[in-house]
Amino acid sequence: MANPSLLILPGDGIGPEVMEQVKRVIAWFGDKRDLAFDVSEDLVGGAAYDAHGTPLHDETMARALQVDAVLLGAVGGPKYDDLDFSVKPERGLLRLRKEMDLFSNLRPAQCFDALADFSSLKKDVVAGLDIMIVRELTSGVYFGEPRGIFEEGNERVGVNTQRYTESEIDRVARSAFELARRRNNKVCSMEKANVMESGILWREVVQKVHDEDYPDVELSHMYADNGAMQLVRAPKQFDVILTDNLFGDILSDCAAMLTGSLGMLPSASLGAPAANGRPKALYEPVHGSAPDITGQGKANPIACILSFAMALRYSFDQGDEAARLEAAIETVLANGARTADLMGEEGGTPISTTEMGDAILKALDASL
Ligand code: NAI
Ligand code: MG
């Protein structure tokens, strides 16, 4: 059987720097775990604009639709700030998400013990935290029509429309329930059914999908504003949180910060299963291209490496190997390895991007 295929798009700024370490990790799994991937690499974002005058070449897009998973670094940077909106680096990423129809965005918030002091919350509130936010990514108020700024009488009105069809809610609900079955069998769905009709429909459809096909999963519903309060009060009450695009944008950023640095946060965006049963999938760190530290060897590669761990788990059915990689990172952090972004007030000497990669490979070797 052919090896699973992986398209790597390092992008801009620190994207290529952190991706360099991911490539070493991928090679390690090929060498030591007999888990070989057909890896190809291409340009996205500003790098693609520089080469082709477009942030995503059609050929790259076509390739992304063929492979089993795409792994992306980051896009953007000050060099591209004055470009026309239509060719901005971010458009490359948006095109990928749209044409791959990646409707389910997985954002884990996981607290590594060694970094529990890093949280702005009390240590016992976050220690051991491991939750997953499933955010609907391709519909809702960021896409609904009508939208725009219109003249109305003698003033202007800004309009956006929150809109969800039953099938859009149905498919993202299924992805959350499937995920819950692989975790702790618990989903909390968040909307504002008290003040929004789209929320009423959301709640109804989620409940129906649950009752018909996932009665074994524990389901609760919560208003999203209360959800925000509960997330900072007692986040460990949750396992999988299912929510829409707008609330998910905010709640996932909020949950992420419970656990510390941007340099630690992975994500996955999944679409419908392809013919081989694997979902269309894009894995990327949450952070951007970090122009302030680009080229200085300071970037933390862990967010991008953890994104590859998610790929192992969700695209390649290698949950044990994903856990091996996560455990190696846990070990390295427990041993005190820190890139600059992970330095607390007590100071110390940070290690470089490459040194963090070295340490993780060493811990992987030790896991054999
Ligand atoms: P950013 O995430 O690039 O950086 C925010 C801060 O976090 C900076 O101080 C940066 O040095 C630090 N940081 C980020 N990742 C880090 C890592 N791995 N290790 C250590 N420190 C890290 O967000 P910012 O500054 O708002 O945006 C910079 C550029 O990135 C912009 O062009 C923006 O449009 C783009 N961007 C791209 C994203 C993507 O590709 N998905 C997401 C967010 C921003
Ligand atoms: Mg956001």
**In terms of per-residue confidence, which ranges show pLDDT below 50 for 5 or more consecutive residues?**
none
| Bound ligand species | 1,4-dihydronicotinamide adenine dinucleotide, magnesium ion
Task: Tell me the domain tally.
Answer: 2
By CATH, the superfamily of the largest domain comes out as Isopropylmalate Dehydrogenase
Overall structural class, as computed from helix and strand content, comes to: alpha/beta
- Number of extended strands: 12
Can you tell me the overall shape?
globular
CATH topology term of the largest domain: Isopropylmalate Dehydrogenase
The total of helices stands at 12
Average pLDDT, to the nearest integer? 95
N-to-C terminal Cα separation, in Å? Answer: 25 Å
Q: Gyration radius, to the nearest Å? A: 21 Å
Oligomer: single chain
What spatial order of strands do you see in the largest sheet? 2-1-3-12-11-4-5-10-8-9
H/E series, N to C? EHEHHEHEHEEEHEHEHEHEEHHH
Helix content: 40-55%
CATH class of the largest domain: Alpha Beta
